[in-house]
Amino acid sequence: MNRIEKSQETYTKLFGDAVSAASATDPDLQDILSHLSLVKCSIKAIWMISNGS
Asked: What is the pTM of this model?
């Protein structure tokens, strides 16, 4: 499992598969927010690995 798959798995655990109301009215914003959430999860995972947590 690569980091992208792991991030997507974490995102699904945190937020589920539900589509928010924002995506119904602004799909571009939802895409940006989803990407940022995945990036945040990836950065946190890297930080935890580097600190031995």
From this structure: 0.39
pLDDT in tens, the chain (53 residues): 788 888 888 888 887 776 655 556 777 887 888 888 888 888 888 888 888 75
Distance CA 53, CA 47 (A): 9
Burial letters for 32-50: b for 16+ Cβ neighbours within 10 Å, e otherwise?
Answer: eeeeebbeebeeeeeeeee
Q: How far apart are CA 16 and CA 8, in angstroms?
A: 10
The alpha carbon torsion through 28, 31, 33, 37 (nearest 10 deg) reads -170
Rounded CA separation 50/52 (Å): 6
